[in-house]
Specification:
single chain; 153 residues; 2 domains
Length: 153
């Protein structure tokens, strides 16, 4: 019983921390209808209409990636070794996926820019957020590459 209670507290505290930009009730229809001072009504609306789950899945009802590029960060986290290998040889499927995500033409210039900056992008102590930042900074540092990437930001 105590383990279940501790797990519940952990889950609730994690979901509350992630929902902070929208108030404690999180995103969803309740967030759109009610102000932050009426979070009980917002949470009730979200819960009874299942709008929060729908919003998270569809990216609607203010349920957007507030950290930016979370999908690519998750991709990097799950495919880091393959991405490192692909960047080191300037070719491969994970590298093509990164190009696609950033809206870049998977050109020779794109691949060579990342390959020549491999050491600045990857190192064992860097987490997926730092690798993401390194990729983005490297691509932005080359004007030719940056201009060919529509989602680089």
């Amino acid at each position: 019983m105590l383990k279940k209670f501790a797990s519940l507290i952990l889950v609730l505290s994690a979901s509350t921390a992630m929902a902070a930009p929208y108030g404690l009730a999180g995103c969803g229809l309740g967030n759109l209808l009610f102000k932050k001072d009426t979070q009980v009504l917002a949470a009730t609306t979200n819960g009874s209409s299942y709008s929060q789950s729908f919003g998270i899945t569809s990216g609607t009802s203010n349920c957007v990636d507030t950290e930016g590029h979370a999908k690519l960060k998750n991709f990097i986290d799950g495919n880091r070794l393959a991405l490192e290998n692909d960047v080191s040889r300037a070719d491969g499927e994970t590298l093509k996926s990164v190009a696609f995500y950033f809206g870049c033409q998977n050109s020779e210039s794109f691949r060579q820019t990342l390959q020549s900056n491999f050491g600045q992008i990857f190192s064992p102590e860097k987490d997926s957020n730092e690798v993401f930042d390194g990729l983005k900074q490297t691509l932005n540092s080359n004007q030719t590459v940056a201009s060919s990437c529509s989602e680089l930001g």
